[in-house]
Amino acid sequence: MLVAAAVSPCPPLLVPAVAQGAAPELDALRAACTDALGVLAAARPDRLVVVGPAEESGGGRYPEGTRGSFRGFGVDLDVRLGRDTGTTSGRELPPSLAVAAWLLERTGWSDAPVEGLGVDERLAPGHCLAAGRDIAAAAGRVALLVMGDGSACRSLKAPGYLDERAGPFDAEVARALDTADGAALTALDADLAYELKASGRAPWQVLAGAAEPTGLTGTLLHTEAPYGVGYFAATWS
Q1: Whether 132 contacts 211, CB under 8 Å
Q2: Is 232 in contact with 157 (CB distance < 8 Å)?
Q3: 3-state SS of the chain: helix, strand, coil percent to 5?
Q4: pLDDT tens-place string over residues 139-165
Q5: How many domains does the chain have?
Q6: Which of 18, 30, 139, 205 has a CA between 20 and 30 Å from the CA of residue 5?
Q7: Predicted model pTM
C-alpha cells in the first residue's frame, strides 16, 4: 500500500557540481526536494521505490546498490542507489535515477530499502497505471520518489522552444500534484506531453496508479521554470 510519495524534477543541474556557477539558482528547489524526502521518512515505509523517466534501453528495475555517474555531464561524480548490497543490475542508473540517488545520499536516506524503476517516456498510460498498482501491492508500506520534469517549452530559450500549450499543461500538473488528483494525472495526454518534452508524464501516471485506493492528500512545495522547463516538488501523504 502506498503511504507517501515525493515528487521531484530530475535535471542534472539539480546537482550543484553539475550546475557549477549556476547552482544557487536552484537552491530553493533543492530545499523543497529535501523537505519532500523528509515526508517520506516520516511515513516509516517498508520500501522506497524511485521511479524516473528513461530511454527505452534504460527502462526496467534497478536493485539497491546500483551505481550511476554524472561523467556524461562533465563531472567526475559517482552515486549509488541506497545501500551498497554488493549486487547490481549490471547497468548504470539512467540520469533521472542518478539524480534521485544523489538526493537520497544528500539527505542521508536510511529509512527503508530502495529500488529503482526506469519508465520509458512513451509508455502508454494504462501500462503506467498498472506498474503503479503493482508497486503499491508489493509491500505493506510503500513510499515513492517520483522523478520527472514538466514541459520544456515555456520560453524562447527553452530546450523545446516556446509552445503556448506548455503553460496550461504545467498549470494542470501543478494543480493535480497539489490536490493529489490521480485522475487528472491519469488524464494527461501522452502525445501532448511528448511534444512538450514533459519527461514526468509517465512517472506521474505510475504515481496515479499506486495511489488509486489510498486517499492521500497533496501539497505542492515548489514550482518554477527557470530555464523554460517546468519543475515541481510536491508530496502526497
Answers
A1: yes
A2: no
A3: 40, 20, 40
A4: 999 999 999 999 999 999 999 999 999
A5: 1
A6: 18
A7: 0.96
